[in-house]
């Protein structure tokens, strides 16, 4: 085996390892209907959803926004990530918690945002 073959195999192995690490680090993509159907199953576990922002309220990097993925809607509490505008397509990961109070309103079955991708 020559040096080029060894290099190719090494690069292929590194690429496969990088993909596996990325997949292991990404929380499972769930439908909002699945989360709403049995929120206790997801409590304090990190999951991700993808959808459209239908409502948002916030100031100074903190707030809540509602995501609709076509199967249902879920409130997301954002602390330090900012609040996306209505109509934005968003992918968000976070932990499911039973309730969050923001600006005097309580929101049930909420995702506490930990990561976001647009």
Mind explaining what this structure looks like?
With 118 residues, the protein is α/β, with parallel strands linked by helices. It has a single domain, classed as Nucleic acid-binding proteins (OB fold (Dihydrolipoamide Acetyltransferase, E2P), Beta Barrel), CATH 2.40.50.140. 28% of the residues lie in helices and 48% in strands. It contains 3 helices and 6 strands; from the N terminus they run αβααβββββ. The chain has helices at residues 3-25, 32-37, 39-42, and strands at residues 28-29, 46-59, 62-68, 73-79, 89-102, 105-117. The chain has a 5-stranded mixed barrel. Strand 2 and strand 3 (62-68) form a beta hairpin. The model is unreliable at 20-24 (pLDDT under 50).
Question: What is the structure about, briefly put?
Answer:
The chain is of the alpha/beta class and 118 residues long. It is 28% helix and 48% strand.
